[in-house]
Specification:
The protein is α+β, with helices and mostly antiparallel strands. The chain has two domains: 79 residues, no CATH class; 144 residues, Clam (outer membrane lipoprotein receptor (LolB), chain A). 30% of the residues lie in helices and 29% in strands. The protein has five helices and 14 strands. The protein starts with a helix and ends in a 12-residue tail after the last strand. This is LppX_LprAFG lipoprotein.
């Protein structure tokens, strides 16, 4: 209740009590008394007129006082209940740099996750004249399971690989038959998704939020040295600094997607766009040899 309204209500409630006090003084000190009827009575020695009138008045005064006190109590209760609650402090949003650091720590605690590499434009060049266009895989505590799609010239091939510890198995691109190979003979020997995520989150520079972004995820813009992407592509252009966009979940600070725009490898064109999507965090998985 506004302060001015409470003050007015208090004055109204106190008025009967003020009238009672005034009438009581009149009884103790006889003098001319005027009532709302306009009639004036002087105290009579017999006390008949004034006595009769004040007897009636005194009979009604206790009820009046009770009503006044009840009104005051009600006003106090309403006044207290109408007080506005103390606003809950709003948490200060973290800076873009702090959000990246939180994501780095959260991703480091994971035991497993799935990943997918696609290209909105261009491809990734591997050894053996392979032009990688898409790769999906699973990172577990004991290794890596990978399936890749690539081109050799005009031919399309699909290759699968499993890495457990120091052992590597891969399918023949032409026959699809599994065989164990020396780790250094694998066209994916450089691929290390765990190191890749750590390097990206640890080396992103000029972090900043875009002017607007979706509320269900954090988007962070920045740049990164191409050398920090060696665990993704192998050979890099040491002078390149492509742009990156990081998509981070605000609920658990996990990195969900990375968009890399620009030259990373010496063979890349300026408009090359690589997209890495991460999902299925901390699923209970264990890899086994394919043969």
């Amino acid at each position: 209740m506004p302060r001015r309204a409470r003050r007015l209500a208090l004055q109204i409630a106190m008025r009967p009590m003020w009238l009672h006090a005034r009438l009581q003084r009149s009884l103790d000190n006889p003098k001319l008394v005027q009532f709302n009827t306009g009639s004036m009575y002087r105290e009579d020695l017999s006390g008949v007129k004034i006595s009769n009138m004040f007897i009636r008045t005194r009979q009604t005064l206790p009820a009046t006082i009770f009503i006044s006190l009840a009104t005051l109590l009600l006003l106090a209760i309403v006044g207290c209940s109408s007080e506005e609650p103390t606003p809950t402090p709003v948490a200060t949003p973290v800076s873009a740099t702090e959000a990246v650091e939180l994501a780095r720590k959260s991703m480091a605690d994971l035991q497993s996750f799935s990943f997918q590499l696609t290209h909105d434009s261009g491809h990734t060049t591997l050894s053996g004249a392979l032009e990688l266009t898409r790769a999906v895989g699973l990172v577990a505590t004991n290794g890596l399971d990978l399936e890749a799609e690539a081109n050799i010239g005009r031919a399309f091939v699909r290759v699968e690989a499993v890495v457990i510890g120091e052992q590597t198995w891969m399918t023949n691109p032409l026959t699809g038959v599994w065989s164990e190979i020396a780790p250094e003979d694998s066209p994916f020997s450089f691929l290390d998704p765990v190191k890749l995520v750590a390097d990206i989150l640890g080396d992103t520079q000029n972090s900043a939020y875009p002017d607007s972004h979706a509320t269900d995820e954090l988007q962070i813009l920045g740049t990164i040295p191409a050398q920090s992407l060696a665990a993704l592509v192998g050979t890099v252009d040491p002078e390149a600094n492509p742009e990156v966009v990081l998509f981070i979940s605000p609920n658990n600070n996990l990195l969900q997607k990375i968009v890399i725009n620009g030259i990373v490898q010496p063979e890349d064109e300026a408009g090359t766009i690589r997209v890495i999507t991460l999902s299925e965090f901390d699923k209970q998985v264990s890899l086994e040899p394919p043969i």
